[in-house]
Design brief:
The protein has no helices and 42 strands. By secondary structure, it is mostly beta strands. Strand 41 and strand 42 form a beta hairpin.
Length: 463
């Protein structure tokens, strides 16, 4: 089956953010011009990655046409900055006129050169405006950072955490190879980029206080909660892989597993102590017979589904929050299983050999947050669901025997869903309504000891 590296395209909104100390509409100066800023500041920009375009305005306060004799980027051709004044590009422009009581836009971009340093750096320049023999300046400043860059490359061994990793297009782990990402590593992805594991294995070794973070490569504050900035982590027929203490956010499909490897009788991927947030389609997408085990993890605000099974597969989920709560108009249910897939008029039906969900919350703002769409031709397909001691939101309560000791439609009273705070108080239905796991899960996502008698439902244990 053809692998779809890019499910859909996304239009990323561009915002012009001037983060400066002067918040007034104009900045008065001693010369003939006025400016909307005195310093144009860019957020952190990776080396060789262009920034968002920033802008400022030049004002002519006079009642007559004002001619700017020279506009010069002081760093010249060696500057990492580029300027565009009302459509004119260059490092030095002359004889620019502004009508009376009018203004011009200046657009500025920046690209940094690799600096071979691990520490952040500040790059500065300025633009000089000469009018009537007077020089005025607007300062430019950018925080930049060197990084490891991966562009259509094959990877094995260890990704260190001493500086960020930036992925363009894809970074691959090939057949029979193994990649380990050490605690504290920060992995950034350019638009539509992917971490692709093909018949190899990946191990993400974060710790409680030093998670591995996967997100886009735009660090401007505008992009902090924009979904669809990169594709996701894709495992095809992977050898046994693990993700522990990671934060995976703002992609299309945070984790996508496709098919099982005949040489791997165990789980395709084991996910523990991980947050998977704000993806444009899926938090976890289990496809065509792959197998996932997930514990102590939080999935929320993933637009299509937080957890989706297509064309069969196996899952063992314990002490997780699988939630909706996204604010997109396209927000769908949190958890869905569809064991068949139709393509070109041919329907392929898969089995669910293990469909276990214990001690988990499946909740959100939709009337239903869980759904099953299954086919079982001639009763030849195994559909082995086992859902126990969970909080579930579903408009019509199911009497199917696969649901046992379910707490239906009771608000979990999370602390603050808007701020992704899914802790709860002692009055919550989650408190004390779990069952003991075998083997034991001794700690929650925060590292708090779980009760050995009446553990809480979800990824958090009441402290």
């Amino acid at each position: 089956m053809k692998i779809l590296l890019y499910i859909s395209s996304f239009v990323l909104l561009i915002a012009s953010l001037s983060l400066n100390s002067c918040k007034k509409d104009t900045f008065a100066s001693s010369g003939n011009l006025e400016f909307s800023v005195d310093t144009l500041i860019f957020d952190t920009v990776f080396t060789t990655v262009g920034s968002t375009t920033q802008q400022f305005k030049i004002y002519n306060p006079e009642n007559k046409i004002l001619k700017i004799d020279e506009i010069e980027l002081m760093g010249g051709s060696n500057s990492p900055f580029r300027m565009n004044v009302d459509g004119l590009k260059g490092t030095k422009l002359t004889d620019i006129e502004i009508p009376a009581k009018d203004s011009l836009f200046v657009f500025v971009e920046v690209t940094l050169n690799v600096n071979n340093q691990s520490l952040p750096l500040i790059v500065e320049d300025s633009i000089r405006f000469k009018t009537n023999s007077k020089n005025q300046y607007v300062n430019l400043a950018v925080w930049g950072q060197d990084a490891y860059f991966h562009y259509k490359d094959k990877n094995e061994g260890i990704w260190l955490a001493d500086k960020p990793h930036v992925v363009f297009d894809y970074a691959a782990v090939d057949s029979a190879k193994s990649l380990t990402i050490e605690a504290g590593a920060h992995i950034h992805f350019h638009k539509n980029s992917i971490l692709f594991v093909y018949k190899g294995e990946i191990h993400v070794n974060g710790t409680k206080d030093n998670e591995v973070v996967f997100e886009g490569d735009r660090l401007e504050s505008f992009y902090e909660n924009i979904a669809g900035q990169w594709y996701g982590i894709y495992l095809q027929e992977a050898l046994p892989s693990t993700i522990n203490y990671a934060i995976i956010k703002n992609g299309t499909a945070g984790i996508h597993t496709f098919s099982a490897n005949p040489a791997n009788p165990s789980y395709t991927l084991e996910i523990t102590n991980t947050k998977i947030l704000n993806h444009a389609s899926y938090g976890v997408f289990l496809y065509a017979g792959s197998k996932i085990k997930m514990e102590n993890s939080l999935l929320a605000k993933n637009v299509r589904n937080s957890f989706f099974v297509l064309e069969g597969g196996s899952f063992n989920i314990n002490h997780c929050d699988i939630l909706g709560y996204g604010d997109s108009k396209d927000q769908n249910i949190a958890f869905a299983v569809k064991n068949y897939f139709t393509q070109d008029g041919i329907t392929t039906v898969g089995q669910v050999l293990e469909g276990k969900i214990y001690n988990s919350a499946i909740y959100g703002t939709q009337a239903d947050e869980i759904a099953f769409d299954t086919l079982n031709p001639d009763n030849q397909v195994t559909l082995n669901f086992d859902i126990k001691n969970c909080l579930i939101k579903k408009e019509t309560i199911s009497t199917n025997s696969m649901f046992q000791q379910i707490f239906w439609n009771t608000n979990p009273s999370f602390d603050d869903t808007e701020l992704n705070d899914f802790h709860f108080t002692s009055s919550s239905i989650l408190n004390g309504n779990g069952i003991i796991s075998n083997p034991l899960i001794n700690f929650d996502l925060d590292g708090i000891s779980r009760s050995l008698l009446t553990p809480d439902i979800g990824c958090y244990e009441l402290n």
